[in-house]
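Hello,

Our lab assistant flagged a job as stuck in the queue for most of the afternoon. It eventually completed. Since we weren't sure the result was trustworthy after the delay, we are filing this so someone can double-check. Below is the sequence as submitted and the structure that was eventually returned. Let us know if re-running is recommended.
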Amino acid sequence: MTSAHVTLSAALPVDELAQAAEGASARDQFAELLAAHWDRAYRFAYHLTGNNADSDDLIQQAAEEAFRAFHRFQPGTRFDRWFFRIMHNSFVDRIRRDRRRKIFSLDEVTGAVASETADPSAIAEGALDGPVLRALRALPPDARAVVALVDLLGLPYDDAAEILHCPVGTIRSRLHRARLALREWLRPYVDAMKRGDL
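-- returned structure --
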């Protein structure tokens, strides 16, 4: 899904859409706000999930949840921050569900490595290459979210703290630990680049 088109009508009960149509067209307002913030929202979803299919699923799920909760959105506040918070919560919930369902991974059993032939980074962040994306995916979800919000999307610490529901100090410490982990993970790659091996 590479545009701001989100199929809300197929996912929401008709009576909810009818209620949304009342009171100054909440559905149109929501769609307009979502379209205005689509690119950054998609990049955030991609940085959390690491691939196109899961990004599409995550942003669709978050859009549906946000639309259902749109009556609680405070006009005049930052829609993107509110939507990012919903998306992050959806992502964390999905990880918890997947952990409960997952028995083992065939990749772990066979030692297979995921294919790198797809190029989803062109949609999310052209500057990120394979080793950086793999390093980002290796981070725990909370650390990955902080790196995505602060380092990749350029949000200030206080906005990241608001989205992730934690103090600014927690954001700083998670970011510090995540940057150290990324540096260690990427050291062989950077050394190979310096030697001209890549």
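-- support follow-up --
The delay was a queue issue, not a problem with the job. The result is valid. Residues 9-21, 102-127 have pLDDT under 50 and may be disordered. The radius of gyration is 19 Å.
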